[in-house]
Amino acid sequence: MYHLVKDLSKNKSFNIFINNYFSNINLFKYLKNKGFDAYGTIRTNFIKFSKVLEEKVKQKLNWNFLLEVVVDKVLVLLWIDNICYQFLLNL
Predict the structure, then answer these.
(1) Of 8, 67, 88, 90, which one has the fewest beta carbons inside 10 Å?
(2) pLDDT per residue as tens digits for the range 11-33
(3) Alpha-carbon span 76 to 91, nearest angstrom
(4) Cβ proximity of 53 and 86 under 8 Å
């Protein structure tokens, strides 16, 4: 990902969508520092996954439950639909 964004123009605005295979807190912080907005899904087994969210994932939660936690200036969202979804957004 670092290699892919280094050639993007600094004079334009980009929104970067990333799937859970590449998403991590450090990447989202890097992209924000370079001026890019990033959005993506995240796996619960990544290193900095919030302990609060980790505990919630283990619980039986109601449909449409939403929880947000900021980790290193990156918003981590947990949302329950038919399954549990986790998202990252750089602030």
Answers:
(1) 8
(2) 777 888 888 888 888 889 988 88
(3) 10
(4) yes
